[in-house]
Amino acid sequence: MSNALPIHRSLNFLLCLSLLLAACSQQRSKPTSTALPRFTAPAARQGVTAANNILFRAIGLVGTPYHYGGNTPETGFDCSGLVDFVFRDAAGVVLPRTVGDLADLQLPAVARNDLQAGDLIFFDTTSRHASHVGIYVGEDRFVHAPNEGGVVRLDYLSNVYWRQHYDSAKRIPL
Residue limits of the NlpC/P60 domain (predicted)? Predict the structure, then answer.
C-alpha cells in the first residue's frame, strides 16, 4: 500500500493552503490621513471646565495676603482684585475692577439656593449695596479677600456674619 494521498485530496489541500496564505498576506488599505478628527467640546462642557478652572484657581490662592488695590498673587489681593485675577487667569474673562462695577453688571440674579461654583456673591458690609465680593466654590463655601491684615480664605455662607451681610449673587456666563 502506498503512503501517498490521492491526488485530488492533495490538490484540495494545496488549494486551501494557498487561499489561506493569500488572504493572510494581503495588506489592508491605509487611511489617507493620519490626523485625528478635531473635537470641540459642547458649550455646556466648556462652561463646566471653565467653572472648574475658576474653582481650583480661587482655592489655590487661599493664604495669599490681603492688599488694598492688589490684583496679583505677588502683590496680594483685595476682594475685587481677587475676583478679577481669578476670572482672567482661569477663564480668560475680563471683569470690571471694583465691587460696585461688578455688582452693576447687567446679569440675572442668582437665588442663594441656586448658587453654583464660580458665581459671584456680594455682601453689604458698610451699609452700602454690595461693598464686598467673593467667589462661590460650592458646599456653602466661598473664597474671598476679607480685610487688611488678613489673607485670602475660605468661609461659610452660613457663618452668622456672612449670612447677615449677604446681598446678592450673579453668574458670569462662561
Answer: 48-173
Summarize pLDDT for 97-122 with one digit per residue, the tens.
Answer: 999 999 999 998 999 999 999 999 99
Q: Would you kindly state where each structural domain of the chain is located, as residue ranges? A: 45-171
CA neighbor of 123 nearest in space, from 102, 97, 139: 102
Known catalytic residues? 79, 132, 144
87 band by pLDDT with thresholds 50, 70 and 90:
very high
User: According to the CATH classification, is domain 45-171 in 3.90.1720.10?
Assistant: yes
pTM: 0.73
Spatial distance between the Cα atoms of 119 and 126, rounded to a whole number of angstroms: 22
Of 122, 50, 48, 41, whose CA–CA distance to 79 is shortest? 122
